[in-house]
Amino acid sequence: METTAEPAVHMSGIVKDFPGVRALDGAGLRLRPGEVHALLGENGAGKSTLIKVLTGVHRPESGEIRVAGERVEISGPLDAERRGIATVYQEVNLCPNLSVAENILLGREPRGRFGISQRRMNRRAAELAAGMDLDLDVTRALGDHSIAVQQLVSILRAVDLQARVLVLDEPTSSLDRDEVRILFDLVERLRSRGVAILFVTHFLDQVYELCQRMTVLRNGGLVGEFATAEVGQRELIGHMLGEQAGELDRLEASAGDDPPDAGAAPFLRARGLGRSGGIAPYDLDVAPGRITGLAGLLGSGRTEAVRLLFGADRPDTGGVEVDGRPVPLRTPRAPIAAGLAYCSEDRKSEGLVAELSIADNLMLAMQAARGWLRPVPAKTRAELVERYIAALRIRPAAPETPVGALSGGNQQKVLLGRWLIMQPRLLILDEPTRGIDIGAKAEVQRLVAAQSRQGTAVLFVSSELEEVLRLSHRVVVLRDRRVISELDNDGGLDTDRVLAEIAEGGGR
Amino acid sequence: GGGGEGAQSGGDDPIVLGFSQVGAESGWRTANTESIKQAAKEAGIELKFSDAQQQQQNQIQAIRSFIQQNVDVIAFSPVVESGWDTVLLEAKAAGIPVVLTDRAVETDQKDVYETFLGSDFVEEGRKAGRWLVEEYADTDDQVNIVELQGTTGSAPANDRKEGFAEIIGEHDKFEVVASQSGDFTRSGGQEVMQAFLSSHDDIDVLYAHNDDMALGAIESIEAAGLEPGEDITIISIDGIKDAFRAMADGKINLVVECNPLIGPQLMDLVEKVHAGEEVKPRITVEEGVFTQDEAAEALPDRKY
Amino acid sequence: MTPPSTLPALSAAVSRSRDLLEGRRRFIPVSMAGLVLVLVFVVGSLRYSGFLDPQVVLNLAVNNSFLIVLAVGVTFVILAGGIDLSTGAVLALSTMICAWLLREGWPPLLVIPAALLAGTAIGLAQGCIIHFYGVQPFIATLGGMFFARGLCFVISTESIPISDPLFSALAQTRVPVLPGGASLSLGAVIALAVAGAAAYVLHRTRFGRSVYAVGGSESSALLMGLAVGRVKVGVYTLSGFCAALGGVLYTLYIASGNGLHGLGMELDAIAAVVIGGTLLTGGFGYVLGSVIGVLTLGAIQAILVFEGTLSSWWTRIVAGTLLFAFILLQRALAPRAAR
Amino acid sequence: MRSAQTRRLVWPLLVLALLVAANAVATPRFLEITVRGGRLYGSLVDILHFGTPLLLISLGMTAVIALRGIDLSVGAVVAVAGAVACTLIESAAEPDSPSAVAGAVAAALAVCALLGLWNGFLVAVLRIQPIVATLILMVAGRGAAQLITGGQITTVRSAPYREIAGGSVATVPVTVIVAAATLLLMWLLVRRTALGLLIEAIGGNAEAGRLAGIRATGLTMAAYTFCGLCAGLAGIIISANTGSADGNNAGLWIELDAILAVVIGGTLLTGGRFSIAGTVLGAIIVQTLSTTVYTMGVPPESTLVFKALVVFGVCLLQSPRFRAQVAAPFRRSGPPRPPSNTATPAPPEEDDVKPEAASIADQEPREVRP
Ligand SMILES: Nc1ncnc2c1ncn2[C@@H]1O[C@H](COP(=O)(O)OP(=O)(O)OP(=O)(O)O)[C@@H](O)[C@H]1O
Ligand SMILES: Nc1ncnc2c1ncn2[C@@H]1O[C@H](COP(=O)(O)OP(=O)(O)OP(=O)(O)O)[C@@H](O)[C@H]1O
Ligand SMILES: [Mg+2]
Ligand SMILES: [Mg+2]
Prior knowledge:
The complex is a heterotetramer. By secondary structure, chain A is α/β, with parallel strands linked by helices. Chain A is built from 18 helices and 22 strands. Chain A folds into two domains: 9-244, P-loop containing nucleotide triphosphate hydrolases (Rossmann fold, 3-Layer(aba) Sandwich); 250-504, Rossmann fold. The relative contact order of chain A is 0.11. Chain D has one domain (7-324): Orthogonal Bundle (ABC transporter involved in vitamin B12 uptake, BtuC). The model of chain D is unreliable at 334-370 (pLDDT under 50). The B-C interface holds B 21, 23-24, 30, 33, 47-51, 53-58, 60-62, 64-65, 68-69, 80-86, 106-108, 151-155, 157-158 and C 50, 53, 55-56, 59, 63-64, 66, 152-153, 157-163, 168, 171-172, 250, 253-256, 258-261, 263-264, 301-302, 304-306, 308-313, 315-316.
């Protein structure tokens, strides 16, 4: 038996350089068996990089890794798995072409008499899913499922590895509260069995609820290791942001408290908009300056609903009018021309072009709208890019960095920036705050609020119900792929009310 | 030979000939095809024509299909020389006589084909060589030759090179200073010749495995400020109309004919083997060698 | 609060009924390819007498046995997200090695393994260059194509006939499959066996599943702890082996070695794979589709032969048009869901 | 990033320099440039002159490849272009009049643009995979070219037509001018307008591009049309070079050379970022390679092996890992573990994974429980 003091993982003095950037500069952490350990820091602080060093994806320039006291060099994810480290990466890293079952069990497929048994594999995967209270068809291709389901699948995969160390890099960024609950129960179960769990998140509430200890990184360096019980939220934010912490207070003070402009007449009307297998026909009115939240459980059809509106998918029924004129929905072009903007929840496969630079990605929608013959003048472009990099605190602030090299949160900000630049009349945001840090989240909320004050309507989808309620003037509730009700939010609406609506809804 | 009788179906039904052509890779080949089609029509022979697009397996497939359709005679121009045993045996088993055109096949089997009607590529190379030896009989200076080969690995390229080398090898003064493949095409000939000209100073003779390459090379020679036919002696093989025209203009010195117009001869043979008559196992096509003097005369009669 | 228990059940029922339609989407391309092939035979038999003769059908496999083997190898490569342009040249090299070694007096039972080994080695080398040095598959295998064909000519620019008794015996072996006397050649039987084995490997072994995973997303496969390197090197090695085996079958079929054999056959193999519904970007497709693809190309050829009066250029135009028609038909038959 | 891409061109440039140097040693006159008949003359000029068709096609191919496509039909389009132009000139009342030639060339280019559009239609509208979509024309196009010429090689004696390839303006060959003009045009088109950005966005992530409102269908069709047009221009030059149209052999296998050139130039076949400068360099390397074979007297039977070795050489030199391994023995005194190869900013996840690590796989599931 090992002594309890022996960390399951001990990383120290890790230095990792990327071309032009030092992502990690003396970072480290100590992870003990039977603890849930939070790894915290701003976007781009180096959390994911530290994790990828641990799993052998990146080779550190220097530093030391000990697993169960033994100094090791980890040569790759396979090696890490063999050393008992299972990982859920920040971006979903599964194969969209394979079935859910295969994604869960790839590399450990159950065998039958004639090699791999598809049947057993499906059965085993269905069991695992059921163990997490998930009801999904494990034989369907992963790519058919929403990003949230994909995230759950990658968690299932890691859990099934039965490792000594479980690393979760922002596993809850697209999950709603029920799924988060399930995940937490699971984590707690594993912890009590002595598994060491590393948990990366930007939700500080979750940190305080789940974690015993935490490590804070800033600019690739180690700020320190703290016991959760001993550090308050304020202080923690101070550690994460350093001297900028004061700024945050200013931001939070200004966010969210603007009066709803209830009188405006709707400029956009959707009537009977629907797509079989996607969402039942629904009606929606959008007025300038109003923020409409879409609430619902995982898979309730929020994403499908807003995609139809934007022409991202072709509706089977119904249509959209802007200012009384119908907008063709065959491609997103007409909706964009009519002043709509849609920020997809899946930034990796539907949002960003990884090899293009920050600047190119920011300008993409505007350029597409102008057409190829009218390039945005260099000066305007430089100004816009600079303004939005600053406003969204995109790091590194070098416009020519390829977006693929940014941290997850910073990528999300670039995607958001692309549509903010368009100054749209209706901004559709699907999980816009996925994976961005507290400072940036406040900033985004402030920007959204500011936009709406200037007359931009906003459709806001988020798995964080609190966030939806805090921002929205009106909440559309969905369940089982249909709109069940619309609730006005003049401050009185709380999460319980909405959840109750979801629970009893549809019965009418 | 034999076996022709078995396949015969009746009195005045026209003879059915299955012919598998290599492809349409050159003007020469097209003339060859046309001649065969024309002659078949004139002889009242029903022609089943199939184009192999330079692929041996297509040709084999076509021959198999002819066997299945039970044609009276099969003729084909083999894409390559070897590898025909199986299918020829199948034809023999089905009692269908086979006539080869254009090139022979290499086989150990006996009596798998009736006859072979076509040119002798090696002999063509020899003819070119003999003329050259004669032409340069008076001089003792070294004669620098550049050679434009056909497609690497193809039978005409191999054989024309061999025949030519055989003759000039007997004389020390001839030296092939450069030899490259021009892929039997004009642009190939042009490009390779251009490179020869810039890397070799004193080229006396150009030997091209076909007319097209020679015609391409002429372009390069002219671009280099030299006079084809004068500064550089040009020999080529095939005898297409364009080459005769160039020869009449004094730009080519010798063309060794390789006659594609074998249609009438072929139909004649087909009728004979169908009737079960004995034919010679090797029948050469009537072919000549043309110098500049003869070219102008022959030009109006060239059909291809 | 606890979520109402009816909710997941309900949504599951809804999604399940939808699955019957949509969940099997990935089988659509391959089944459409099969359907088109069947249609071709129906139409062909209406137009040409003797087209639906069992032997004519079986001859598709006989005449294309080597292409089937080639396409099977290429299927692995394409499924893993790569491409292999060297197969036609490796096939030629394999025929050349067989013919040359036989002429040198090697025993035939050593010659075949030697040819297979050479092809496999070329595949392995390509795989290593692609994987370890990050060279793009297209260019690495194009280099391999030049190299293999070049090697043929280095061995000999002439065509080398084969007269070995064992080879002719093998070539002439027929395996009866239908009571009416219709039979397959040994080569066709081997080809079909190879296709079967490949299907088994792809669907029932970890290597096979990893091939799909790497094709779906290489970086994900890596992060999932799969042996990406082994898969990538493996598929090219396998393809090299298949090309060499195709070459041996070709040698049986044609009984000669020649550096000009199989010119452009790599494109036929790729086309067959793609016509069979495999996505060139990797991750989707089946070996069965590739076999159907080869047979489709073979059927086009058979139609051209049966048509019998086409001049050379019309042969090409008709071949292109038929190819287009097949693909269009496949498109038209597939429901909208197949995107 | 752009500069990083440019930096990668150093290695192909080195190979080009090596090839030229080798030639210069073997044939001292290789570097000589003189004026003959009012026209620049010499091996280097030849490389540019004969390389023009390949360069043109490679440029078109670059646009298509950047959109994650490929065009196998360019060789056939080359044949069609020559066939149309030559047949029209042959049948013209006055083959020698510049207007007849201009008309024929315009007609040929129009046909080729249409063929390109057809490819684009198959790819963008019918959504047929590019390799098969263009294979259709690759097969049928050559047939059509032969149909037009009647299977013969059509020879034209029109002087103005011959000028297209043989002429010169102020001693510079017309071909080189055409290539330079096309290059300039393309560069202006993609780098001075927003076309390049839109192409790279669609090529890099089609769905993201669509959702950003880019008209992918139109763009794709335009790219294939451009490619067809480039191939047509190349076909005219090839045919004008010899004054003949060869339906069967003109541009045979040039598609592979063109793709090779594009790839050597550093453009990925998986679409996205592309480099025009790289393509130019690639095309020149490929052409220099064939010239080298001719001038250095590599025997025809070894030509392909020689070509293969050079191709592998270029590719391997571009691989940082290969360079590190080659350099390692010369750097014995260096640090014990050489720093990881982060020189190429590859996609983030796979940046510097050591691949062989993954290949020592353990397939058995491991129960690792505390
Ligand atoms: N592949 C790469 N190439 C270049 N730079 C990189 C790469 N991956 C990460 N970086 C840089 O390293 C730094 C740390 O990134 P990392 O992804 O570790 O941040 P993070 O803490 O996980 O942030 P987030 O909360 O946004 O996920 C960032 O500046 C990022 O731009
Ligand atoms: N629990 C589930 N079981 C099976 N499939 C699901 C489930 N949840 C979502 N999906 C799949 O995800 C796809 C997209 O759902 P959609 O994105 O509309 O949901 P959503 O309301 O946006 O929720 P979220 O984005 O949080 O998943 C659907 O096609 C559905 O098949
Ligand atoms: Mg991160
Ligand atoms: Mg969603």
